[in-house]
Amino acid sequence: MAITRGFTRRGGGERDPRLPPGQHDAGDDWPVLHAEATPSIDTDRWTFTIDGLVDTPTTWTWDEIRALPPDHYEGDIHCVTTWSKFGMRFDGVSVDTLLEAAGPQDDAAFVLARSHTGYTTNLPIEDITDGRAWVVWDVDGAPLTDVHGGPARLLVPHLYFWKSAKWVSGLTLLAEDEQGFWERNGYHDRGDPWLEQRYQGD
Amino acid sequence: MVAPARTGPWQQATVLEVRSETPTAKTFRLGLSRPAPHLPGQHYVLRLTAPDGYRAQRSYSVASAPGRAEIDLTVELLPGGEVSEFLHEVVEPGDELEVRGPLGGYFAWDGERPALGVAGGSGVVPLMSMLRHAREIGRPELVRLVVSVRSPAALYYRDELPGPQTTLVYTRTAPPGSPRPAGRLTADDLAPAVEDRDVFVCGTPAFCDTATGHLLGLGVPAGRIRVERFGPSG
To answer: What sequence ranges are listed for the domain Oxidoreductase molybdopterin-binding (chain A) (predicted)?
Structure first.
């Protein structure tokens, strides 16, 4: 381990156990990091589609997805650019509920999440099932704003936050892993913050 | 698009030179132990390690042109910023720092297609790499920059940035005799520079949204605009 001359931990206290390695607490800030122009998407023309290796490819309109049984996440989020935020609440619908309607086929092992901007990100199917992923529209009780991915984004909070696609438009179930936008640009295929899987090869 | 270089492992870099750009910005020239070619626009991650194993890391854009065994990282001092304050107050030539890169294959210029860079404040750093590269390969016309800056004293790279490729937009204080009064970036500032160029926008989230709004209004397709938002990440 290469010690940096003169560098010490601030405050000297114990590190917050909620912080994965290499992360810091962003406090009240919620930094905004995306690589395209921020879109403004009307709920009138917003849709969410599950297709690929499913029995019933399914598309929900805004009103239809909002009528599904609600679910929420309370906890922390972690961005690969090293900030984390604690104690967030997101309201939406569980991805399990959506997949139940579409009926994943046995050979579906990966998903490619897609956004209305063309953004994509890839995930193993185990990372978006069993209560680990949501499509969300409210954060801390208020609608998600455009810059944070509103009207709705994917939420996969146990992975780095680029996996939680803003302006999400759907999931395509695949037999083979297909890299998304940041993954093709050098970021890790899975992105577990506790294993510090930031870049390809980590 | 040229394929981005494969991200290398963590490596030790030696601080060769520290230069003040403004009262709150310093450029650190780092000699790499394992030089790797970068594309203008890419960044490195810099990691600090305390004796007890505690680590802090941040991403910084490369300001220098590719093709050397050293890179320039320009760091804006953020109040309370754990890493930027350490770099500004403690680091001096001869120190060793751990870095990893180059990173970011999207906000990167291939050195071939005409490009327009639109920068707010410290967002000029990755775009300076593009301008320097274009000048070095003898094709300065490939890059145009529109740089929004608070005042003359806040301008980075003041000896190199001005020139026929660059439009400076002063938002608070314009230099004496400036034909454009101080004020925020407008569509009129961007219109003459858009031409048929790929656009790279870099700055705070608010600046990026304002600039991309103007560009879309001028008819630039969203697919030709790449954005790098600099957050308050310390």
So the answer is: 37-182
Q: Are A189 and A122 in contact (CB under 8 A)?
A: yes
Triad A115, A116, A118: Cα angle to 5°: 65
- Pairing type for strands A168-174 and A110-115 reads antiparallel
Q: Do A186 and B104 touch (CB under 8 A)?
A: yes
The reply to whether B196 falls in a domain is yes
Chain centre distance of CA B114: 18
Domain span including residue B96:
11-103
Question: Strand ranges (DSSP E) for chain B?
Answer: 11-22, 25-32, 43-49, 55-61, 70-76, 96-103, 115-120, 143-149, 166-170, 198-203, 225-229
- Average pLDDT by stretches of 10, chain A with 202 residues: 88 79 85 82 94 97 96 94 92 97 96 95 96 96 93 97 96 96 89 91 81
Do the Cβ atoms of B113 and B121 come closer than 8 Å? no
**Secondary structure (DSSP) of A30-68:** -----SSPPP---TTT-EEEEEESBSS-EEEEHHHHHTS
Which tokens sit at A163?
Answer: 């996996």
Q: Please state the pTM of the whole predicted model.
A: 0.75
Q: How far is B65 from chain A (nearest CA, A)?
A: 20
Q: Within an 8 Å CB–CB cutoff, is residue B204 touching chain A?
A: no
Domain spanning A43-195: which superfamily? Oxidoreductase, molybdopterin-binding domain (3.90.420.10)
Using CB atoms, pick whichever of B49, B100, B232 lies closest to residue A2: B49
